[in-house]
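>> received
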Amino acid sequence: MAPIPTAILPEGGERLDPTDVRTDEKRDRILGAALEVCAQRGVAAARMEEIAARAGVSKGTLYRFFESKEDLLLATILASYEKGLRHVDADLQAARDPRDMLVRLCNALADVLVQVGAHARVHYQAWGITASTPSSEAKLLGFLRAFHAERDQRIEGLFRAGQDAGVFRRDVLPRVVADSVTALLSGFIYRATFDPRAASREALRACFDELVRGFLEPRVSAPDAIRSEPR
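>> returned
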C-alpha cells in the first residue's frame, strides 16, 4: 500500500495521524463507537462527546487520536478498506494455484461486502462531510487511488499467472478481470445502502462464480462453486 502522508506533530504535544491504520485497541474501539453512533443518529447529528462515551474514553483521549470530527470520519472509512484488505490477504495465504487464488479472493471479497455493507450508508454520509474539507478529501482520494491500484495490480498479476499456466483464457485482458471484480463488489456495496437483503454475500458469490467460469479455458473444469466454501 502506498504510504499516506503522516500528520505533523505540534510542538510539545502528540498528534496521531487519523489515517494510520496500525492495530491499536483503544483506537479501534473509538472507530467502532463512531460507526455505532453514526448509524443510530446519522453522521451529521453524531457528537464527539457521545462517541467518546460509547468508546469508554475521555473526550481528551478522543481528540488525542482525532483532532476533528472530519478526521474521525475519514479514519472510519479508511479503516474499513484496510480491514477488508487484511481479510483478503489472510485468505490468500492458503491458495495453491492461480485458479484457487481467484476463487479465494472472490470469496474473501464477498465477506468484505458483509463487513462494509453493514455500514455502507454511514460511509457514504461520511464521504460527504469528509469531502467538504479539502485536506481530508485529498487524503481520502489519494488513499483510494493507491488502494485500488494495488488491488488491481494483484488481480491482474494473478490472472496473468493463470494464463501462463493454461488455466485462464488468453483472450481476456487482465485489466478487464480486475475491473469486473471491482465493479461487482462496488455495486453490491452501493446496493446495500437501500436493499441489504438483495445485496447478500450469497448473491455476490453467485455473480463471482459465473465470472470465474467465464474466464476459465473451456477444457478446464470450473470450480464447484465459489459459494461452496462456507463462511
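>> The first helix runs from residue 25 to 41.
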